[in-house]
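Hi there. Long-time user, first ticket. I'm pasting a complex I've been working with (about 252 residues overall). I'd like to know whether the download I got is complete or cut off, because the file seemed smaller than I expected. Thanks.
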Amino acid sequence: MPSQTDTARAKVVTLVQQKGGSGKSTLAVNLAAVSGQNNPPEKPDAPCPVVAAGIDRQGSLEDWSARVPEDRLPFDYVVTKGRIGEIPELVADPAVTRIFVDTPGFMETDPDAPLDADPLGTGNTAKAMEEVLQNTDLALVPLTPEWLTHRPAEFTIERVLKPRGVKFLVVINMWDSGNDREKDGVRPELEKLRDWCRSRNYPFAAQAIRRYKIHSKAPEDGLTVIQYPESGTSLRAREDFYKLALSVEQAL
Ligand SMILES: Nc1ncnc2c1ncn2[C@@H]1O[C@H](COP(=O)(O)OP(=O)(O)O)[C@@H](O)[C@H]1O
Ligand SMILES: [Mg+2]
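Hi, the file is complete. Here it is re-exported in full:
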């Protein structure tokens, strides 16, 4: 586990996917929660070494974190609202070891731009994204069984991450594990998603995040996975995140 002496600079894990609704905010908050639980402040009144940062103007991270009672929130959070300079400042803060950044989805800003143009465009959000990506140690790209997330995942990797040399992992999210088995010679959904990654040579996290109702209710209930009940499906829902957090640490 990281300590404040052996890591001079905080490591930045960024959730990035062109498509909204694929799980960026869910993954950012819950990975920060697991990491924060594993890396508590050295003294009760010291700052948390784990920070969740949102550059998202919609502020889903802020809305969610604000609902979790202060004494149960294992990370600090900041919402930059696109301000430049805050992420590098956090990275340089010796008290911080891990930063999980939630980003907004993005569009091609100019529909007439050449196909190989940089898709982040030029606005304020684009500048904020650029700064985050420059500081990112590992990008996580959520992929869900819904095929509408596939092309945006590929687009994010090919057009945004690879040109900048940002290391990445695909994270399969919202997997319906319940009846996912081979039928009539058709491969299970999870294997199809993994094949999709393999055929493109995209590294993917071994642990998929299953789809559970508790995840979608958690923001409203002011919960992160570390506060889920330790029984039944809640336990399985949190277990996915504990395992994913380990893969993320290994990939860093
Ligand atoms: N593994 C999951 N199981 C169930 N619901 C999920 C899961 N991951 C995300 N969701 C829900 O799907 C919706 C979109 O997720 P969100 O994290 O907000 O995506 P993004 O930030 O990429 O737009 C939210 O309502 C969220 O609660
Ligand atoms: Mg979001």
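A couple of notes from our side: The beta strands are 11-15, 50-54, 76-79, 98-102, 138-143, 168-175, 209-210. The pocket of adenosine-5'-diphosphate (ligand 1) is lined by residues 17, 20-26, 60, 173-174, 209, 211-212, 215-216 (CB under 6 Å).
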